[in-house]
Every structure is written in C-alpha cells, then in structure tokens.
Amino acid sequence: MKRIISSFFAAEHRRGLLLIAIVALSAGAARSAVEPAQMFCDHMVLQRDKPAPVWGWADKGEKVTVKFAGQSKTATAGDDGKWMVTLEPLATSAKGRTLTIAGANTVTIGDVLVGDVWICSGQSNMGRSVSRSVIPEGMKWNHPTIRYWGAGGDQPYPVDKYEKAREEWGVCADEESTNGCCAIGFFFGRRVQQDVNVPIGVLWQAWAGSIIHEWIPRHAWRMDAGLADIADKVDAYYPNTPHGREVWKNSLAAIKQWTAKAEAAMKNNTPFPYPQPLMPQPGKRDVCGFYNGKIHPCVPFAIKGVLWYQGESDMRNDRWDLMLKVMASSWRDLFSVKGDGEEIPFYWMQIQRSGDYCSALNRQEAFNALKLVPNSGMAVLLDLDVAVHPANKVDSGIRLALWALNRDYGKKGVVPSGPLYKGHRAEGNRVIVEFDYTDGGLRIGEKDMLNPPKLKASGELPNVELAGKDMKWQKASAKIDGATLVAASDKVAQPVAVRYCYTTIPQGPFLYNAAGLPAAMFTSEE
Fold it and tell me: What is the pTM assigned to this prediction?
C-alpha cells in the first residue's frame, strides 16, 4: 500500500514538473519578438552625415542591441515596449551591408546603403509612378542605388505603426522595379546622381486628392495666429487639449440630457428627441489624417529633406502659404536631430496649368511661401503639358533636383530656378520688372514635352497685364531688355501693379532665363 501511494505521488510530481515546463515554455513563447519600425527592412537607405535613429518594439525592460558599420548601440525597451538607439553619423556607402537588431530574437536587415533620404509627399502627381510618366528616349533603367519605400493611409489619431507596409525597399535595378518607383523621386534622384555619387532613398508618402490640412500635425496649427480658427477646429477632436476638453465636456453634457429624454420617450412610447447629439469625431479633410497615418509612424527617421507636390485640391485656399509654412516648420522639428537647429531643405512645386483644378491663386500662394519658409525652393511647371496629371514627370524631378544640387550639394554652377519676381518700378506709362535668377538674361520660349525649350532673346511676351490705381487689369505689351522685362499699356497711363500668367491656363510662349528654366507666374498685387 505504501509503494502504491509513493508511486502515485511520484507520478503526480512528474506531471507537476511537466506542467511547470509547459507553462514556462508557453511564457517564453508569449514574449514579444523584437520588432523594428517597418521602414527598417532589406535594401533600405540610411541617411549619411547625421545621427540616425533606429527604433522599434520589444518586451518592457528588454535590452536591444543594434549593430551596423562597426557601431554597436544598446537600448532598453520602456514601459510601452518602445526602444530607440541613435547611430553616430555614417559615411556615404553604395556597398550593401547588414544591420542587425538583437534582443530575445535577432532581426537581420540586408543590403543597407548609406546616402540621402528625401521624403516625397503630396497628392496624386507625387503619387504617380515611373510607369505613368513619359520616358526619355534611350533611358538606362539600371539605377540600383536609387531606392524607395512608403506605407500608410489616413488615420483619425497619430499611430506608431502602419497597418500594412512594404516588406522591403524597392530597388531601381531594372525596368520592372523602376516602374514602381515614385516618378518625381526617381527623376530627382537620377539628376542628382549625374553630379553627385550618392545613394538616394525615396521615402514615398503621397495620397491622391489630399489637401494640405491633412498633412499638418495637430500642434502645428498653433504656430501661426492666422490659422487659429482651424486650430480650434482641429483641437476639438482631441480631449487632451484645453479647447478639445471644453468641447468634449459640453458634448457629454448634451448627450446626458438627450439620454434622459430618450429614456422617458421610450417609457412613454413617444418619438425620441431629435437631433441626437454626437461626440466629436474627426472626419476626412477635417484634421490631420495623412500626417497621423503616413508621416507620424516614420518620425524621427533621419532624412536629407522634403519634396512636396500638392495644391490641385486647394485651388481656392487663400491661406495655403501659411499652411505650408507651419507644415514645413513642424516637419523640420520632427525630423531634425533634437536641439541642432537644423532647417532641412524644403522644395515644392508651383503647380501646372489644368483648368479649375490648378488655379492662379494656388500658384501665387506657392510663390508667396518662398518668403515664409527659409531654406526653401520652388520648381515651376507652367510650361509643361496642360493636364491635371502632366505626363512629363522628368522635368518636374529635374527642376527640384536643381535646387538641391545648388543649395545642398554645393554645385554653384547649377542654376536652381527660372526667373522669380523681385520687384518693379514705374517710369511714366511703363513698368520695369526685375527678377532673381536671370542667369544669362531673360528669354522668350516654348517647350514641347521632354525637348528643351526653344529660346529667343527678343519678341513679344504674352500674358502680361498692368493696372492703375483703380486696379483694373489691362493687357500689356511686354518685351525683354536684358535681365528686365518692360511692359506698357495704352489703357493704363500710370501703372502701379503688374502681373504675369495670372490666369488658369495661360498659353505660351513663356518667359525663361538663358538656362531654359521658366519664370514663375506672379502678381505684384497684395
């Protein structure tokens, strides 16, 4: 009997040990795997010459070590599971190397280059791929050091992770892979690489039809007093803001009152009170959806700068320049190394001609923004094909690249821009207009798709108007005089204002400089 009892307890002891082992194994299996942020994946490009954050998630308190290019950095996951290390500035490298992230498990990221990463953002024209652009005759498709990645959509509140994301960066190694790249990002990178041997990473974050409101983070609306009314509207959706807390408090009180009346109506079998109050709910085009869902999850990835192509959906937005200003300021704060005061370059488009989609107002707002945003530049598309989506993305990318080559890559022989209105003076019934970027003098010309514009140093320039003190605009006769434009009108005896191409679809010929870059449309009217 004793042997039977002993055998019974021995068996139970073994079962207990087995159960403990199973529980222990289960607990180990339940541990969260070390997970990097989604843009850290094969074939990626890391930013050179500045500290480069690498981050992700693991179990609370877990130590995570990142190794790359001879560096080893360790961080501990916080209470929220997030960890981050910052690599010391990396030298340019077109040689693919391995980056490892190790904790409870090891993540290996292969073929990592070091170069310049540019965010390419905006709406559908930035969203167009190479496959939807005209292609230069005889173009070589093998550009393996131009790479691209993007993810996300609009979200009501900022998210740390994308719901879905590319599992690796695209490599422009052949026609098939290049066709999937952001067209403007590719032609930008291709032009940069003609002068500078550096890998280019295209962080492609665009969305068709988006308006600029959707790309601005919540806090940025308070950066300019001229946007206070929109700031209040945005904050109304966020109960952690003073304005939002008051809005939610009032909404809760209204709902409580309605609920009491609704309960009485149900008891008495009478209709419910109408309308039913609702809690504040962010809707599309109301708040910061594409910042929340596409930009926020990749902060603070180290970047070189931002390329922006948007405005078609903001054709009647007379504060677009202020919005671009606060967007640029806020993105710079988010992507700059903390405390270094860096103003990363910010370059955008003065959008193309295309009916009511691309109004003169938005083009003027884009021009005005040059005075509001330091370290910025604007590519002009006035002479490209007339379409909501111009097929010529080659010149768009090249014209952005010229700004970067001149400003950021030290190529002083590269002319960055066509003529930009500087000022004017009246002499009797004439107006003399002065410009910046008149390199080689002004020209009149016309452009056909990818061909260089045909330029001439004299002739009549259309699309110029003058106004007197009554501010009634009249067609003017305008001719080039070296680096200035001289305009006069028989209907304006004492001109005070001048404008050029201030209409929806101006027809050529257009004003250029000798470098073959078109002048921006403008109006001197405040």
Answer: 0.90
